[in-house]
Amino acid sequence: MTPPFNGQAVRAILRYEMSRARRTLGQSILSPVLSTVLYFVVFGAAIGSRIPAVGAVSYAAFIVPGLIMQTVLAQSISFAAFAIYFPRFTGTIYEILSAPVSFVEVIIGYVGAAALKSAATGLIILFISFFFVPLRILHPFCMIGFLGLTCAAFSLLGFIIGIWADGFEQLQLIPLLVITPLSFLGGSFYSIKMLPPFWQKLSLANPVVYLISGFRWSFYGHADVAVGVSLSVIGAFFAVCLCVTAWIFKTGYRLRN
Amino acid sequence: MTPAISIKGLGKTYAGGFTALKDIDLEIERGEIFALLGPNGAGKTTLIGAICGTVKVTAGHVSVCGHDIAADPASARKAVGLVPQELTIEAFETPWDTVSFSRGLFGRPPDPARIEDILKRLSLWDKKDTQIRRLSGGMKRRVMIAKALAHEPQVLFLDEPSAGVDVELRKSMWEQVRLLRAAGVTIILTTHYLEEAEEIADRIGVIRKGRLILTEDKDTLMKKLGKKELAVELAAAHAGIPPVLANFDLALSPDGLRLILTYEAGRGESVISGLLEKLKAEGIAYADISTRQSSLEEIFIRLVGEDA
Questions:
Q1: H/E element holding B290?
Q2: Contacts of B54 in chain A (CB under 8 A)
Q3: H helices within A110-206, ranges in order?
Q4: Of A114, A154, A89, nearest to A14 (Cα)?
Q5: What pLDDT was estimated at residue B208?
Q6: Shortest CA gap A21–chain B (Å)
Q7: How far is CA B18 from the centre of its chain?
Q8: To probe the interface with B, which of A17, A23, A98 has the most B CB atoms within 10 Å?
Q9: Residue of A nearest to B58 (CA)
Q10: How far apart are alpha carbons B64 and B2 in whole angstroms?
């Protein structure tokens, strides 16, 4: 009898994905780190000194959590979407489909690898930001928790996009047309409390607002929305993505015909 | 011992309504080399996909080494190695890494000595650290075979293994296949070349339009399929087959100008010279003779009759 959990497969997928990241270090890790760091050098250090502090926090310090979150969001989606789309595109997916792996092992392997990579990207950015910006982290464990949960949830979303996409254009479609606007309007550069009431209300429909608010709270103790609400929204989003992936594997959607 | 593959009433209808497989019943014994023979689009690859889990089955049951693919997919799949038809392989990996990956994916703990052995047997050892995109087509195919063997499967599927492969490589591949069989591995391959099935297989299944129209021992089948025809163009029209030629398997064309002799390939010599001598002795003049072998397509049509 074969054991119900194929740990070797999870190990193999994780190793494979990590070695791919090592091989493409410049593109996969360094480039998002550099572009994010440029943001807080320009907006934080250069222009930020002319912008008043938000609450008790200097503008440069204020934008760091949001910027990390934005990068982590985009990278999670991109890592996971590419990881599963590429084998579909080249045809090497046959091996995964014919292997004794269930939905659980594939998810832990691919989504886990994508989440680890994007979390590492976020932590590298955080580390570098200490050199430019006066940061403090009031709730380090919550910070790690928010980061981890966001990476996992958006890697799952990326995985779904990678399975749904029928071409490289579709692969970019949702990240560019949906995620980028939501993340720019998610309160990285401003507190939604600065907005007129109507736009404040509208912003609450943007899930990214909850992510950034919660994440920033773990740094400075101030949040736009209650931390519990932030956590629930991320949790619910994660659960929805998990259900969709379970359905994909159950029906073989875009995988088996 | 349970058979390597047991298929009952297998059917596959795609969402669009196209029926790729219909009512397939097949048992393949352990240690057998089984060739699935059929024209392009007959359903060979779909059948393999259904057994290996890349295609969703819509009717019937399949079990591999006693494990039902629906009830216990993990055990069934662990027993199977698949080498697909197309060269689909990660270009930037090395043979060593990709073969090790396959082993892990199929739930086996790392075993560098085993990987080394597989790569050496397939003459890939000196290329183990070269990026796969730098390898030749033949080497890539061998890497794919190595991947399929990495987890020590009991059943190996080779889908069109000789597509785009030169004679030399084909020879060495058949040698590997025989070695694997000697080690107890069951091998199932697809081909649309009769000669290929003839060379390597113990048993042959013929598939056409999604139906398995026959399975037969190779020797029996070759007798059935390996018919040749000798056409003798007569100098003058005959009303019927001359009675003195009654011992031959002959047919006369409607215009009475052509005699057609059907004989088994390999036994032509005695039959043909026998017929020609007889014609000479009887003073029946002929203008030309030619031989032809039925194409596989024709053989299929003959096998399944008019309704095919």
A1: strand B286-293
A2: 94, 97-98, 256
A3: 112-129, 140-164, 168-174, 180-184, 197-203
A4: A114
A5: 85
A6: 12
A7: 24
A8: A98
A9: A257
A10: 9
Q: Does pTM surpass 0.90?
A: no
How close does chain B come to A248, measured CA to CA in Å? 13
Assess contact for B57 and A256: CB atoms under 8 A: no
pLDDT tens, position by position, B57-110: 999 999 999 999 999 999 999 999 999 998 889 889 999 999 999 999 999 999
Q: Are strands B250-252 and B211-217 parallel, antiparallel or unpaired?
A: unpaired
Band of residue B166 on the pLDDT scale cut at 50, 70, 90: confident
Residue-range domains of chain B with CATH: 5-223 (3.40.50.300), 226-304 (3.30.70)
- In single-letter form, the type of residue at position A67 comes to L
Q: What amino acid occupies position B97?
A: D
Cα–Cα distance, A214 to A224 (Å, whole number) = 8
In angstroms, the Cα distances linking A102 to A106, B90, B106, B290 are: 6, 22, 11, 60
User: How distant, in Å, are the alpha carbons of A19, A173, B12, B215, B303 from that of B37?
Assistant: 41, 44, 18, 10, 13
Token digits for B141?
């195919």
Q: Which residue of A has its CA nearest to B13?
A: A257
**Quick one: angle between helices A112-129 and A59-90, nearest 10?**
150
Q: Which helix (H) or strand (E) element contains residue B52? A: helix B44-52
Question: Would you state the structure tokens that stand for residue B11, as one six-digit string?
Answer: 């059917």
Joined together, the tokens standing for residue A33 give 């780190």
Rounded Cα distance between A137 and B138, Å, is: 57
Which DSSP letter does residue B68 get? E
Among the partner residues B55, B82, B147, nearest to A256 by beta-carbon distance: B55
The least confident of A15-19, A144-148, A166-170, B271-275 is B271-275
Q: Is A26 on the interface with B (CB under 8 A)?
A: no
**Whether the Cβ atoms of residue B207 and residue B42 lie closer than 8 Å to each other:** yes
Of A96, A65, A104, nearest to A191 by C-alpha is: A65
Query: Which pairing describes strands B59-64 and B67-68: parallel, antiparallel, or unpaired?
Result: antiparallel
Reported ipTM exceeds the 0.95 cut: no
